[in-house]
Amino acid sequence: MIGKITGRIDYRSTDHVLVDVRGVGYIVFVSERTMAGLPGTGEICALFTDLVVREDLMQLYGFPTLAEKEWHRLLTSVQGVGAKASLAILGTLGVDGVSRAIALGDWNSVKAAKGIGPKIAQRVVLDLKDKAPSVMAMGGTVAQALGDAEAEVIEAPTAPVPPQNPSAQAEALSALGNLGYGPGDAAGAVAQAAGEDPSAETPALIRAALKLLAPKG
């Protein structure tokens, strides 16, 4: 299985790129958001990948971070959500947006993705709500990742990817867990706090989440 590729972009389409890895061209499907963050034709890119194999089909899907790849894996585990629908959701909301929407039960945000109806959006939220904390705690871009035994790589500098700093959310989730809050409640509070102040560091996130979790009245 191909878990990561690094190579030169030979061709860009609306929904996929052709990446040359040591003379072998890989067609990699990506979301609109990921496509916008990739370098131009002729430049080096690096993507985590998920390989879909069926009787009449083999397709690679690419992601700039492990967290996005994991969300793709979870989204496609939901009945009625295929790879293209998953990319639509991730392209519309991004990793942070998906995390917040699912942690907060906001299926209307999920429904905003192209081709996603209300029933599928509600199913996504219900099926994945308890799994949101573990993905929110993930991080790391291709450039930060250590070697992958399943990866096809070349020795070349990787292109920059959009900055991600999930450490504060992960640390806040851990702290709230140590205080006895359930994963679902903690994830929802951290997601809401992070949405209100995306640049907040761990202490500020914990304080804001605790305020949200405090009994009302």
UniProtKB/TrEMBL annotation:
GO terms for cellular component: cytoplasm; Holliday junction helicase complex; Holliday junction resolvase complex. It is found in: Cytoplasm. Residues 1-64 are annotated as: Domain I. Its main location: cytoplasm. Keywords: ATP-binding, Cytoplasm, DNA damage, DNA recombination, DNA repair, DNA-binding, Helicase, Hydrolase, Nucleotide-binding. Residues 1-62 form the DNA helicase Holliday junction RuvA type domain. One of its GO terms (biological process) is DNA repair. It holds the Pfam family HHH_5. Residues 166-217 are annotated as: Domain III. It comes from the Bacteria. One of its GO terms (molecular function) is four-way junction DNA binding. SUPFAM superfamilies: DNA helicase RuvA subunit, C-terminal domain, Nucleic acid-binding proteins, RuvA domain 2-like. Residues 65-142 are annotated as: Domain II. Residues 168-214 form the Holliday junction DNA helicase RuvA C-terminal domain. Belongs to the RuvA family. Homotetramer. Forms an RuvA(8)-RuvB(12)-Holliday junction (HJ) complex. HJ DNA is sandwiched between 2 RuvA tetramers; dsDNA enters through RuvA and exits via RuvB. An RuvB hexamer assembles on each DNA strand where it exits the tetramer. Each RuvB hexamer is contacted by two RuvA subunits (via domain III) on 2 adjacent RuvB subunits; this complex drives branch migration. In the full resolvosome a probable DNA-RuvA(4)-RuvB(12)-RuvC(2) complex forms which resolves the HJ. The RuvA-RuvB-RuvC complex processes Holliday junction (HJ) DNA during genetic recombination and DNA repair, while the RuvA-RuvB complex plays an important role in the rescue of blocked DNA replication forks via replication fork reversal (RFR). RuvA specifically binds to HJ cruciform DNA, conferring on it an open structure. The RuvB hexamer acts as an ATP-dependent pump, pulling dsDNA into and through the RuvAB complex. HJ branch migration allows RuvC to scan DNA until it finds its consensus sequence, where it cleaves and resolves the cruciform DNA. Has three domains with a flexible linker between the domains II and III and assumes an 'L' shape. Domain III is highly mobile and contacts RuvB. NCBIfam families: ruvA (TIGR00084). This is Holliday junction branch migration complex subunit RuvA. It comes from Ascidiaceihabitans donghaensis.
